[in-house]
Design brief:
- The protein is mainly beta.
- It has one domain.
- Strands 1-2-3-4 form a 4-stranded antiparallel beta sheet, with no helix packed on it.
- Strand 2 and strand 3 form a beta hairpin.
- The longest helix has 9 residues.
- It is elongated.
- The structure holds zinc ion.
- Zinc ion binds next to loops.
Length: 78
């Protein structure tokens, strides 16, 4: 049994693959509402963005901030 090679595979791709500027995919990312931010959207003139807990397609969990107006990802937190 080679335990070392197993550990290497487990350490790959630990970070969520969602990027700033992507369109919000609430169902694919299993989005759960987290909190509101009083922060200006990077992509439109909206003055509020919404935080969600999400999981990307590979199962990595993280938090993102979405603009409710243009539905683009404004921030990704690992
Ligand atoms: Zn926006």
């Amino acid at each position: 049994m080679n335990k070392d090679s197993h550990a290497l595979i487990a350490n790959e791709q630990v970070y969520i693959t969602i990027c700033v500027g992507e369109n919000f995919k609430s169902i694919a990312w299993k989005a759960q509402y987290d909190m509101e931010f009083s922060s200006e959207c990077l992509f439109c003139s909206s003055e509020k963005i919404t935080g969600y807990r999400v999981e990307d397609e590979l199962g990595h969990a993280g938090k993102i901030a979405i603009c409710p107006t243009c539905e683009k990802v404004n921030a990704v937190y690992h």
